[in-house]
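Is this the right way to post structure tokens for a design question? Let me know if I should format differently. Anyway, here goes:
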């Protein structure tokens, strides 16, 4: 799959702001500062379309990125990061409500990428999110990023810890936005989901 064009469409906090064209949507969830924006930028081969921030918890909306590929148009949807302690409880609950409403009810959603850090065992928030996604019967793939910061010989041990903590039988996709590790596999995963004939099967 080749990305021909990518642009920031809009930030959304409710259904009235979601696109109505029915193009496939791939959502990214993960704790604050886990590297979701860097993953998006690497995937679309842009340095700073998805803005990274030194201030965790800054993203407070669903950020829609419109992607034109050689197969079909689709959206990447960056969800607010979870687990940031300095955000008020009220604010966290507000974010959680609209994120869960989006994930549970959005018809064009074809995949949720849960981004975790390969270096660390998943947090309680990571485990809670994974279990909620599974309970909702949502299509989910775990992406373990920052792989360039872990010696290759230790990848297996780290992925085993992630699988054990999440209770997942599937290995996470190992990824690095800095080096491009796992980019081909991530592209192939998305390509399978956004091909027009596969999208039609989901309708």
């Amino acid at each position: 799959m080749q990305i021909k064009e990518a642009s920031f469409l809009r930030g959304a906090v409710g259904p009235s702001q979601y696109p109505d064209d029915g193009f496939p949507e791939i959502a990214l969830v993960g704790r604050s500062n886990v590297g979701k924006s860097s993953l998006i930028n690497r995937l679309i081969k842009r340095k700073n379309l998805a803005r990274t921030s030194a201030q965790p918890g800054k993203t407070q909306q669903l950020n829609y990125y419109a992607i034109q590929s050689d197969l079909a148009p689709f959206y990447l949807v960056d969800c607010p990061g979870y687990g940031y302690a300095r955000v008020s409880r009220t604010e966290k609950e507000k974010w959680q409500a609209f994120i869960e409403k989006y994930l549970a009810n959005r018809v064009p959603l074809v995949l949720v990428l849960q981004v975790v850090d390969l270096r660390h065992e998943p947090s309680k928030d990571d485990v809670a999110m994974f279990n909620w996604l599974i309970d909702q019967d949502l299509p989910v793939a775990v992406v373990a990023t920052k792989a360039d910061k872990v010696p290759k010989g230790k990848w297996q041990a780290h992925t085993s810890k992630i699988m054990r903590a999440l209770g997942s039988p599937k290995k996470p996709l190992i990824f690095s936005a800095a080096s491009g590790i796992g980019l081909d596999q991530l592209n192939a995963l998305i390509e399978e989901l956004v091909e027009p004939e596969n999208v039609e099967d989901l309708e």
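Format looks fine. Someone answered above. Worth noting: The chain is about 35% helix and 25% strand. The mean pLDDT is 89.
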